[in-house]
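So, does this match?
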Amino acid sequence: MKHLTVGKLAKRAGVNVETLRYYERIGLMPQPQRRESGYRMYSDEDLTRLAFIQHAKELGFTLREIKELLELRVDARTNCEEVRTQTEAKIRDIDQKILHLQRIREVLSKLATACHQNNATSECPILEAIEKEEF
C-alpha cells in the first residue's frame, strides 16, 4: 500500500488541502494514520473515498447527504433500495430548483424586455422592480 502525504492526496483528488482537512473534521474522511514525525499518511482507499465525495458533490449531493451515502455504503444491513430512495429525493429537489430557476429566468426576461437602454438608471424598470419586489 502506497502512502500519500496530505498535499499529494489533495493534488491527485483535485481538492485544496484545507478542504481535505475540513472533510476530516466533519467526519467525511477518516482521521489518517500519522508517521512518527506527525505527518499524515493517506492510502489509495482514502483517494477512492475522496473521489467518491467529489463525484457526489458534482451530482448535487450536499456534504450531509454524502455522509449518509458513505454510511450506507459501509453498513452491511443496508441495500441499494435505501440509496435509490436518497437519489430519488435528490431528483425531486433538483426538479424544484429547476422550476424555481425557470421562474427567475421568465421574470428576468420580462424585465430585460421592458428595459429601454437610453433611460437613466433612475427610470430603469429592472432596478425599480427589484427595489419594489414587483416580479
Summary: The chain is about 65% helix and 5% strand.
